[in-house]
Amino acid sequence: MTSPSPSADGHLTRISAPEGVSPGTGYSHVVWGTGRFVAVSGQCAFDEKGEVVGEGDAGAQARQVFENLRRCLAAAGAGFEDVVKLTYFVTDVVHLPAVRAARDEVIAPDRLPASSAVQVAALFRPELLLEVEAFAVVPPTG
């Protein structure tokens, strides 16, 4: 039986492989926590002026997406260490290694959130290759 492994700060618990479930590769099957819930809308590869970053380059787009997620999380008093769930929307699953590489630059391997990846026919602009949304739980204050 796999036991829960609490994060260092103690407000989140991650289980990579619940009993009877095959271990996930690059994600936790279950994450829960105590504190304030934060939902971040799907982020695309736009810079602060609304221009697409990295047209045709999944790695460049993924890095911009995670920078946008970082800024959105910070606005809510959260960081990547507080993320409990990521959902990836990609126009082609071949982009997933680039998305995971960008994720791994900002999230420690022992703090992987739950995640889902979905291939979609298209995003709202044809030059966009991916979109990522995040859910986080910020530690209680006081």
Explain what this protein looks like in three dimensions.
With 142 residues, the protein is α+β, with helices and mostly antiparallel strands. Helix content is 20%, strand content 29%. The strands form 2 sheets. Strands 4-7-5-6 form a 4-stranded mixed beta sheet. A 3-stranded antiparallel beta sheet has the order 1-2-3, with no helix packed on it. Strand 5, helix 2 and strand 6 form a beta-alpha-beta unit.
Number of helices: 2
Rough outline: globular
Largest sheet: 4 strands, mixed
* Helix share, percent: 10-25%
Overall mean pLDDT stands at: 92
SS strand fraction: 25-35%
Give the strand order of the largest sheet, numbering strands 1, 2, ... along the chain: 4-7-5-6
Task: Give the termini separation.
Answer: 35 Å
DSSP summary, beta strand count: 7
Compute the gyration radius: what is it?
15 Å
